[in-house]
Amino acid sequence: MGVYEALVALSMGIGISAAAGFRIFLPPFILSLVIKFGNLNLDLGGTSFEFFESEITIFLLGAAVIIETLAYYIAWVDNLLDGIASPAAIIAGTGMTAMLLGEEMSPILQWSLAIIAGGGVSGGIQGATVVTRGFSTVLTGGAGNPIVSTIENIGALFFTIFALILPFLAAFAAILILSITIKKVANKGISKQNTNLNTE
Q1: 159 with 15: CB under 8 angstroms?
Q2: How far apart are CA 197 and CA 172, in angstroms?
Q3: Digit-coded pLDDT (tens) for 51-63
Q4: Which residues, at least 6 apart from 9, have a Cβ–Cβ distance to it below 8 Å?
Q5: CB within 8 A of 185, min separation 6: which ones?
């Protein structure tokens, strides 16, 4: 794999990892369909990811997509799912990025990039959705959560397709959203700390 191909694969992995931060199963489901029936130049034969393009994997991922999507529209269940979704999103982002980078790359470099870039982005986006849903639950008693869930579904679908078509732009958008989120959280923490100091 050349440098350009590696950058494309990494960017695609970052974009799809961002999608996994919104929904765990939709991005790998679409990716498995594209690998199996599309024109994505990724040969998984003879690799540890060979199972990913099998019919049974596609069927199970499709079923999981339906269950996950519906579950997030059930009051309070969505908040419970977030506890499971956070580590699962990191695993999904890491795995898909490692798969896209391919086993031609050094395993140390492959998994280091996958964990840092893929897992980091998916975990960060997922963390932001958890906070957003928490605010919605507190402010609306859960009534506004279906709106949050719908936005997340759209975000997952958008970033998955975006990453497959325009990987560099998708990676840039994912990093930009993550940076803005981190900045807002950091500013809020500093503001809260200053408030506490002023009241003492």
Answers
A1: yes
A2: 37
A3: 998 999 999 999 9
A4: 1, 100, 101, 102
A5: 131
One-character DSSP codes across 80-134: HHHHHHHHHHHHHHHHHHHHHH-TTS-HHHHHHHIIIIIIHHHHHHHHHHHHHHH
Query: In 3D, which of 164, 147, 21, 13 has the Cα closest to residue 72?
Result: 147
38: left (phi over 0), alpha (psi -120 to 50) or beta: beta
Could you report the per-residue pLDDT of 64-75, keeping only the tens digit for each?
999 999 999 987
Task: Give a yes or no: residue 198 inside a domain.
Answer: no
Total tally of structural domains belonging to the chain: 1
Amino acid at 71: A
Q: Report CA-CA distances (Å) from 89 to 25, 77, 115, 130, 188.
A: 9, 17, 12, 12, 25
Residue 42: closest CA among 8, 18, 66, 76: 8
Instruction: Quote the domain boundaries for residue 49.
Output: 3-190
Q: Is residue 36 part of a domain?
A: yes
